Amino acid sequence: MMKLFSRYGAKSQGVPALAAPALRRLGQAMTMPRKPAESNLKKDSKKTFRDLLSRLEIPINASTPDQIESEHIRDHGQFLARQERWDELEELIRTHDQNRATTATGTPLSELMLFGARSDVVRAAEHALLHGRPAEGADFFSGIEALELLLEDYPNSYPMALVVAHMHIDIGWAWRGAAAKDDIRDANREAFQAHFDRAADILKAYCPKQHFSPALSAARCALLPGAAQPLNTLCAEFESLIELDPLNPRHMRALGNYLLPRWYGDYGQLDLQARRIAAQTYDIWGAGAYAWVWFDALLVDPIGLETLEVEYFIDGVTDALKRRGDQHSANLMAAHLYRSWQHARSHHDRDGLRKDLPLALRGGFDMVVRDHLREIHPLIWGHAEIGFENTSRVISKERLSAKGRDVALQAVAMPFMAGLQAGQTVQFSPDGITQINP
Predict the structure, then answer these.
(1) How high is the mean pLDDT of the chain?
(2) How would residue 361 be classed by pLDDT, with cut points 50, 70 and 90?
(3) Which side of the chain, N or C, has fewer Cβ within a 10 Å radius?
């Protein structure tokens, strides 16, 4: 038997302990050694991961504490808006924003409150656009007007301005569609532009630095797709946001996505900006920002792998997990590296252009699984398969979770396949990985 301990002591989040303690298994393995018959070993060596899953013992956490907390905060924002308890809602948004309060995985609480507060109006608008008519009993035009009136009741409130501005941004995207494409009908493009222009008018009175507000800075970044020349200000706006909230990697991930050729940049600019942000945040993230800026971009457009400095990227993954060793981050990185490796092995193993990619990405994936991963979060793996894009809205959470579970189990089994086929049992726990010989 061999014990592989986690270097960074990653802890499981809210998952019950496995039924059989590792020490009891250790005692059984030592006192009752047995060698499988040669015929059985040969038989097992031909089995796939599906045949061997009973020997891969890893907790599957389909409903993490972070997901539960996020839903609670969104629901609370929605409840306060429905009850028109605007003073309380404003105070909570401002407090969360000023304190940089987040869920355990880094989602800003202010962002969740803002989403909940506008969700009824936005969903009514999306329903009307999708079906050509409002939902029964819904009048989303009056909902828009009601939120607009908040600006008169709270003329100097940036939290209320954010609620109304984000409402317009969301409805603008509903008109346009979230994909980066140019073949949009004129009427849809005009409606998109009108809502983004209105959001820009609302927010122009509030300077993010003067209010020390990441939420305001993030909203300015969200307005960039409505600008005539977004690239002129994109990097400066995101650098300001990252300066205000450097501990949150979500801003870096959004920057990288917008620097893809399908949006406003190219792979060279993306790589340069990833290096700039990594240098600016080195005291906080080490090389981690290089990995975060490339993160979503590679999932959406894996052609970027041809530009990526893969060794630097793996260093960034390692540094990011040293600083944020929770299981959410471990699942993010493992799912990302697995998907990138799958792309690289199918496109670069034989073409001779980047033969270093598959081996490096596989090595990084194995490192994350062995040193950091202690439980599977299926939704993360499901989202990774579709690139963390907004298209996930059309897929039910249950289907996405089931897909993610299957992909994750297949991926996590791969570093241990030889042992599993030899009859080993591989057990994951918060303290590390135990490989028990037959």
Answers:
(1) 85
(2) very high
(3) N
3-state secondary structure the chain: CEEEECCCCCCCCCCCCCCCCHHHHHHHHHHCCCCCCHHHHHHHHCCCHHHHHHHEECCECCCCHHHHHHHHHHHHHHHHHHCCCHHHHHHHHHHHHHCCCECCCCCEHHHHHHHHHHHHHHHHHHHHHHHCCCCCCCCHHHHHHHHHHHHHHCCCCHHHHHHHHHHHHHHHHHHHCCCCCCCCCHHHHHHHHHHHHHHHHHHCCCCHHHHCCHHHHHHHHHCHHHCCCCHHHHHHHHHHHHHHCCCCCHHHHHHHHHCCCCCCCCHHHHHHHHHHHHHHCHHHHCCHHHHHHHHHHHHHCHHHHHCCCHHHHHHHHHHHHHHCCCHHHHHHHHHHHHHHHHHHHHHCCCCCCCCHHHHHHHHHHHHHHHHCCCCECHHHHHHHHCCCCHHHHHCCHHHHHHHHHHHHHHHHHHHHHHHHHCCCEEEEECCEEEEECC
**Bigger pLDDT: 62 or 132?**
62
Query: Average pLDDT in the 79-103 region?
Result: 97
Range in 138-142, 157-161, 328-332 with the lowest mean pLDDT: 138-142
Smallest Cα–Cα separation from 258: which of 226, 287, 296? 296
Least confident of 151-165, 211-225, 353-367, 384-398: 384-398
Domain residue ranges of the chain, discontinuous segments joined by + = 1-61+325-387+397-438, 67-228
pTM score of the predicted model: 0.83
Whether residue 369 is predicted with pLDDT greater than 60 in this model: the reply is yes
Q: Counting beta carbons within 10 angstroms of the beta carbon of residue 278, is it exposed (0 to 12), middle (13 to 18) or buried (19 or more)?
A: buried
